[in-house]
C-alpha cells in the first residue's frame, strides 16, 4: 500500500451515500448519481450534510459547556455565601 492510499482512504457510508452501480436521484440536489442501491444522496451532498450536522453539534456542545461553566460558577458563589 502506498502512503497516499492511507491518507485518501474513505470509509463509507457517508451520510446518505455509499458507492455502488445503481442510478439514483439525490434527494438534496435532485441530480442523478451512481451509488449503492439504498443511497439517498450524491457524495458531495452527503458530505455537506454530515459537515453541517457536525458543525451544529459542535455549536450545541459549546453552548452546553458554557452553560455548565455558568452553573458551576453560580454554585461556587452560593457555597461561598453560605460558608460551605
Blueprint (SSEs and pairs):
Blueprint: H1 3-8, E1 22-25, E2 32-35, H2 43-82
Strand content: 5-15%
Share of helix among residues?
A: 40-55%
Q: State the end-to-end CA separation.
A: 62 Å
- Label the structural class: mainly alpha
By DSSP (H or I, 4+ residues per run), the number of helices equals 2
Shape summary: rod-shaped
**What string gives the helices and strands in order?**
HEEH
Total separate domains: 1
For the biggest β-sheet, the strand order reads 1-2
Strand count = 2
> What's the Cα radius of gyration?
22 Å
Largest pleated sheet: 2 strands, antiparallel
What is the average of the pLDDT values? 91
Low-confidence stretches: none
Detailed description of the structure:
The chain has helices at 3-8, 43-82; strands at residues 22-25, 32-35. A hairpin with a 6-residue loop joins strand 1 (22-25) and strand 2. With 84 residues, the chain is mainly α. A two-stranded antiparallel sheet has the order 1-2. The model has no long low-confidence stretch (mean pLDDT 91). The protein has one domain (3-82). The chain has two helices and two strands, in the order αββα. The termini are far apart.
Amino acid at each position: 500500500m502506498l502512503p497516499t492510499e492511507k491518507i485518501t482512504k474513505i470509509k463509507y457510508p457517508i451520510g446518505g451515500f455509499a458507492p455502488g452501480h445503481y442510478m439514483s436521484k439525490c434527494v438534496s440536489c435532485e441530480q442523478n448519481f451512481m451509488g449503492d442501491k439504498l443511497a439517498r444522496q450524491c457524495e458531495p451532498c452527503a458530505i455537506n450534510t454530515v459537515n453541517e450536522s457536525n458543525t451544529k453539534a459542535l455549536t450545541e456542545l459549546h453552548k452546553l459547556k458554557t452553560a455548565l461553566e455558568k452553573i458551576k460558577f453560580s454554585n461556587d458563589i452560593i457555597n461561598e455565601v453560605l460558608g460551605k
